[in-house]
Amino acid sequence: MSKEFLKAVENRRSIYGISKESTISNQRIKEIIEHTVKYAPSAMNSQSARIVVLFGKHHDRLWDITMEALRKIVPANQFSDTENKINSFKSGYGTILFYEDQSVIESLQEQFALYKDNFPKWSQQSSGMHQLIVWTALEAEGLGASLQHYNELIETEVRNEWNIPGNWQLIAQMPFGKPTAAPGEKEFKSLEERIKFFE
Question: Comparing C-alpha atoms, which of 195, 173, 198, 197 is closest to residue 54?
Answer without folding.
Answer: 173
